[in-house]
């Protein structure tokens, strides 16, 4: 039997799903622990909480890694389902294209939100801003 030379994408997809799943478990439980159990718990989660959290590069990278891994993991899972159940080649192509477009769009938009989020936009009414913005804007 001859073996084809080239990259076995299915094998690497399978490995990615296992590795990203383990890393996602750590990231998600860390996220839940910090957001729900530390400090005042769920009552403390508001616009100011997110603004304060995303002002720290550590949490930006943490959430970015969680975002990227989750969307690629989910997209790869959906790709596997489409490959298993879409019998017509045109249907398979359309569905795989839609998955690719949606995953790429969500990753781009999520990354932009994480790195361009401004909790203290200039010109906003002071009563609508988080408490830590008053010292920044003055």
UniProtKB/TrEMBL annotation:
InterPro entries (UniProt xref): SQR/QFR_C/D, SuccDH_FuR_B_TM-su
Keyword NADP belongs to the record: no
Signal sequence region: none
Alphabetically ordered keywords of this record: Heme, Iron, Membrane, Metal-binding, Transmembrane, Transmembrane helix
Gene3D superfamilies per record: Fumarate reductase/succinate dehydrogenase, transmembrane subunit (1.20.1300.10)
SUPFAM superfamilies referenced in this protein's UniProt entry, alphabetically: Fumarate reductase respiratory complex transmembrane subunits (SSF81343)
Compartmental location: Membrane
Sequence intervals crossing the membrane: 21-39, 59-82, 94-117
Protein name per its UniProtKB record: Succinate dehydrogenase, hydrophobic membrane anchor protein
Source organism: Herbiconiux moechotypicola
Record lineage: Bacteria, Bacillati, Actinomycetota, Actinomycetes, Micrococcales
Gene: sdhD
């Amino acid at each position: 039997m001859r073996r084809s030379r080239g990259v076995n994408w299915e094998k690497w997809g399978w490995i990615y799903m296992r590795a990203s799943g383990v890393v996602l478990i750590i990231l998600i439980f860390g996220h839940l622990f910090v957001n729900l159990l530390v400090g005042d718990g769920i009552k403390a989660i508001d616009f100011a909480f997110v603004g304060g959290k995303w002002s720290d590069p550590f949490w930006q990278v943490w959430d970015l890694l969680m975002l990227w891994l989750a969307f690629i993991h989910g997209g790869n899972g959906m790709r596997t389902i489409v490959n298993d159940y879409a019998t017509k080649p045109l249907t398979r192509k359309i569905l795989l294209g839609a998955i690719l477009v949606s995953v790429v769009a969500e990753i781009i938009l999520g990354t932009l939100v994480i790195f361009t989020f401004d909790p203290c936009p200039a010109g906003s009414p002071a009563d609508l801003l988080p408490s830590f913005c008053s010292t920044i804007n003055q």
